[in-house]
Write a structure and sequence with these properties.
Elements (H helix, E strand, L loop, with lengths): L3 E2 L2 E2 L5 H12 L5 H5 L4 H27 L6 H9 L1 H34 L7 H18 L4 H37 L6 H4 L5 H4 L1 H8 L16 H30 L10 H12 L6 H35 L14 H19 L4 H33 L12 H22 L13 H33 L1
Antiparallel strand pairs: 1-2
Helix pairs in contact: 1-7, 1-11, 1-13, 3-11, 3-15, 3-16, 4-5, 4-15, 5-6, 5-13, 5-14, 5-15, 5-17, 6-13, 6-14, 7-11, 7-13, 10-15, 15-16, 15-17
Length: 471
């Protein structure tokens, strides 16, 4: 018998589509300029990030999703381990991170659009705001449609718009590696591969972790997977391999053709495309790659617009938010939360674009988003460990190898990495003028975290008070 929702049969997601959803939730060419600043140290940083964070997240989400294959994702997992209060806080942090992150991906889309029309428009703030708001609201309304439509667009978009231009960037970058070493852009030696111990350089590690966040997003669609206990873990491992290859080689490709001091955090990939094709006398092909990159950016934005909102909806149904935010449509899309997200995004976009130093604003917003997400992942890793003890008999078709020792290794390593990266994030970065002293920079981020965490504290307090009165 076919599964029905509102009387209509569900179309299930396959393993490949699910893996592409994972890739579209994580990989983005807009992250490459930030990591390209590290030069050949990118390799060491990504290997460290993969071992200490990305692979532990993939393993944790695979076990949690196969053991609790129900809609809710992060909220459900943390709620099972620590109760609904902490579950709500975790999913709120994930949703809030996606809201804070919106200006960064939208600014990349706007800058890429500018390159297609006239590169000088990249500095035109009216143009940037118009494009960013148009894309935000269009994508929001698109996610009022069915999950199948949204997932299909994300999967196709990430193939055409991220993997294809990413592959072109990597191939062309490899042809420039020897020249880059002669020019001094890249140095392939043991000394050059050793990560810098300077805290102002290590802060980029936090940005790298943000670029690897999102492996739990496909878990929100777990009820639409035909065989989640088999397909979800397989999809996660395939996505992990693709993501690491593109990120490492793509970052090196940009570093090979653009001097560190000239890399733009917003339009770095477009810079690389135009420099590459000018070098080979094929400048006419750059707009085509820019158009494909736009498609990929739409895909990742589309994934993040709907994923965290579906997770927050699960907690809203438990009474943690006003009933207004529980509103859904016939396609079970959380329309009220999508409207709220778009309104908040509109406000943040205005603050971001009209900041006198967009590069600094981009970095600060990116770091704040990373810190919010790292707190959520810290809670998630603790939930993984707790559930092995509190619910040992729950069937887990995929279990982290090594018994409790294996879970402690994966969960403990992941939680410790989140804590260290969170603290490093407060260090003012090198090479980017943020117009603040080190103390002011740290206090600015701390204030941002406090503002973002204030609403869930109030919601939890009101929910607990209501339950006490009813009890």
């Amino acid at each position: 018998m076919k599964k029905l929702i509102n009387g209509a049969p569900v179309k299930f997601l396959g393993m490949f589509t699910l893996s592409m959803l994972s890739v579209s939730a994580i990989i983005s060419l807009r992250n490459l300029p930030t990591t390209a600043l590290l030069g050949t140290q990118t390799i060491s940083f990504f290997v460290a990030a993969a071992v200490c964070f990305f692979i532990p997240v993939a393993l944790a989400c695979a076990e949690l999703a196969s053991g609790w294959p129900k809609e809710g994702g992060v909220y459900l997992w943390v709620e099972e381990a620590f109760g609904p209060h902490l579950g709500f806080l975790a999913v709120w942090l994930q949703w809030m991170e996606s809201v804070v992150w919106l200006p960064t991906i939208l600014s990349f889309i706007a800058a890429t659009t500018a390159y297609l029309i006239n590169p000088l428009l990249e500095t035109n703030k009216i143009f940037l705001v118009t494009i960013m708001l148009s894309v935000l609201w269009t994508t929001t309304f698109l996610n009022f449609k069915s999950l199948k439509t949204s997932s299909f667009l994300s999967a196709i978009g990430v193939i055409l718009g991220t993997l294809v231009p990413g592959l072109v960037l990597i191939i062309l970058g490899c042809t420039e590696m020897p020249a880059a070493q002669i020019k001094g852009y890249l140095q392939f030696s043991k000394e050059a591969l050793i990560p810098s111990s300077d805290l102002s350089a290590l802060v980029t590690f936090t940005a790298i972790l943000l670029g690897l966040c999102g492996m739990e997003i496909p878990a929100y669609h777990i009820k639409n997977v035909k065989n989640p206990k088999r397909d979800y873990p397989a999809a996660m491992f395939l996505a992990t391999l693709i993501i690491l290859i593109v990120y490492i080689l793509g970052s090196l490709a940009i570093a090979a053709v653009i001097p560190k001091e000239k890399i733009s955090l917003i339009s770095g990939p477009m810079q690389a495309f135009y420099l590459f094709f000018n070098t080979f006398g094929l400048s006419w092909t750059a707009p085509f790659l820019a158009a494909l990159t736009l498609i990929g950016s739409f895909a990742i934005l589309n994934t993040w617009i709907i994923g965290p909102s579906k997770g927050l909806l699960s907690s809203a149904k438990e009474g943690y938010m006003p009933k207004l935010f529980m509103r859904t449509n016939k396609a079970e899309s959380p329309v009220a939360l999508l409207y709220l997200q778009a309104i908040c995004g509109t406000f943040l976009i205005s603050l971001f674009v009209f900041n006198p130093n967009i590069q600094a604003a981009y970095w600060i917003i990116n770091t704040l988003a990373a810190q919010l997400y790292l707190v959520m992942y810290f809670i998630l890793f603790l939930a993984l460990i707790k559930l092995r003890y509190s619910q040992p008999n729950t069937e887990r078709p995929y279990k982290i190898p090594g018994g409790k020792m294996g879970v402690w290794l994966v969960g403990g390593l992941g939680a410790m990495t989140c804590l260290v990266a969170f603290l490093i994030g407060f260090v003012r970065p090198a090479g980017i003028d943020v117009h603040h002293t080190s103390i002011e920079y740290a206090l600015l981020l701390l204030a941002g975290i406090g503002i973002c965490c204030f609403p869930p504290i109030i919601f939890v307090w009101k929910a607990a008070k209501t339950r006490r009165l009813k009890g």
